[in-house]
Amino acid sequence: MSVELLVLVIVVITALAFDFTNGFHDTANAMATSIATGALRPRVAVALSAVLNLIGAFLSVAVAATVAKGIVRLDAVSGQELLVVVFAGLVGGILWNLLTWLFGLPSSSSHALFGGLIGATLAALGWSGVIWQAGSEGVLAKIVVPALLAPVVAALVAALGTRAVYRITRGADADTVRSGFRWGQIGSASLVSLAHGTNDAQKTMGVIFLALVANGTLTANDEMPLWVMAACAVAIAAGTYLGGWRIIRTLGRGLVEIESPQGLAAESSAAAIILTSAHFGLPLSTTQTATGSILGSGLGKGAEVRWRVMGHMAVAWLLTLPMAGLVGAACWAVAHFVGGLPGVLVVFTVLIALSTLMYLRSRRAPVTDANVNEWPGDRLPAADRESA
């Protein structure tokens, strides 16, 4: 096996590892509210979400095209140099995903990936290496503006939906309403999972496409290979099934007190926005959209919002792009300084070491499907409180 091919294999493996972390990091976006209200048992929820993520990954490649052709100037770098840029960006995204997962913070996997890629590109090529704005393309139009608008729009839609739901069902039998909306939540959560697969799995497809272009296997105008789509679909589905319980607890129990009508409104608004963005090729943050929807459902009901938790999330959102970018830039610098295959192997070893360290740290206070509905300081899980 040649050095160039070995580097390509490492990059593809790292990309699929990012896709795997994307899966368990973002499971909460679809299933946190259904788990919190008792509409679905935790293990059933993540299994259902995994299957629908797998299916959703095959529905479109519009987002993948944006990632592959709309961030890095492909004509400015090529060959192994581009592979190292892509590799360093992936490492930045993975490490930020794992760090925020460790603290139970639902930050954006999408922005972690983009931040890592942008940071590595800036280190390698300077400011001109990134497509900041080119008409309706570029980082500003495709990433920054949707990131600012998505949570606000999602919160407004969910708030209006929640208010309407409670107004319509006012006076109806409480047990009937609760049971009906729990069934409805299964459908709406499934739609979010399908949308997540359509949007997020494609981001890794785009990265692998970049790597294949760099290696000369493909050109920038080729179609997405089926094996890339299948590999990314399986990786994100496997990660989703793992659970990501720490973030599920934060979104389902830490932000607002969720009841089944709120959950339906939040999931429906999130799914509509994510699917719309996927149709237009916008690599939207499903985490920010889902969080905005959950926040809006709480405001629409007039429920207490834990603003301290929301503040922690907002800080993580603001830091994601720059911090993942710094890690991506540092990884590129190390790989470039050592040089060639040894440089890539050094960074890959650091990635494995830090990932293992964070996993071991998480085992000191594990969150599993057994305690995912237990928020510190609360006496009863939401599902128990609804049936009490």
TrEMBL record:
Subcellular compartments: Membrane
Pfam families: PHO4
Membrane topology: Multi-pass membrane protein
Keyword Membrane carried by entry: yes
Keywords, sorted A to Z: Membrane, Phosphate transport, Transmembrane, Transmembrane helix, Transport
Transmembrane segments annotated in the record for this chain: 44-70, 82-104, 110-132, 139-160, 224-243, 314-335, 341-360
Coiled coil (UniProt feature): none
Family: Belongs to the inorganic phosphate transporter (PiT) (TC 2.A.20) family.
Name of the protein this chain belongs to: Phosphate transporter
Species, as recorded: Nocardia jiangsuensis
